[in-house]
# Entry
Amino acid sequence: MLRGGKRPRLPIIDIARGVAIVAMVIYHLSWDLSFYGFMPVDVGYDPGWVFFARSILFSFMFLVGVGLVLGHGDGVRWTSFWRRTLFVAGGALLITLGTWIMFPESFVYFGVLHAIALFSILALPFLFTPIWLTALAGVAIVALHFLFHDPLFNAVALSWIGFWEVPPLTNDLVPVFPWLGVVLGGIVVARLVRGSTAEARLASVQPRNRLSRVLGWMGRWSLVIYLVHQPLLLAVIAPLAMATGAQTAGREIEFLNSCQTSCEATGTTAAMCATYCQCGLEGINRDELWDAVYSGVISPQEQTQLDANNRQCSVLIYPELETEPDAAGQGQ
# Structure
């Protein structure tokens, strides 16, 4: 325990947050470029990019746990805690509204900020439980994510818990299981370090170069940066995509991802679903049905075209359907 009970500030934690937010901006920039057709790779599904995104998320959640210990490990400062939590929750609401407008079929209903707000509340008691109990709870929460699945949690209303068999269609989802466990892991590590010689050594790390100062500043303002960076990126990329025609490619990627997820949820193999969805995309382009698909306002003629495309694509993966007579009595 340090003299007077006063804890040293750890600039290294601010720098770590700064590195995490820079990585997040890089990922979202790449995702935007992919969505609008400026990059040939689908960032949302490419294994390398998925690993990069999960690594960033891990660092964010781990640092949430560390931050809880640094801010409230000697006793909860309730005014500060609720001010920050409500700020994060408000930001989460803005992200939900914004993505619902931009991406109504895959809007974010429980993303990073939603998780941080809820996990901060759920993890708070573990600042004061025995460390072994906090560690055990963290391991159990992570393990349950891999050991238990139930189709009941495929529904959007329960998917935020994390036990789904088929992931729901959303641009960002940070479920309680396993990510609350990562937060608890951050709490365990921070509590082990707190009050030890390791804390004093970390406090002695005082980077003075420009890069470190910038990263430290970004770390202290990471929540604000998280809120504003994506709207700023889209404000540049979206108009550019419209001007260059790249937006069409992004729209096609979103359709294929949505179709693939829905198709696989029926038990159809991934390969068959890819064939089916590519056929559906060709039909939408051929019959110029994008406005109908995206608006949800479909005329009887457009519905007939969509139904015909669906039958045609179904035959590709289930050839036996070709022998069945259609509504006009043909195919005998």
Remarks:
- The chain is about 70% helix and 0% strand.
- The first helix runs from residue 11 to 35.
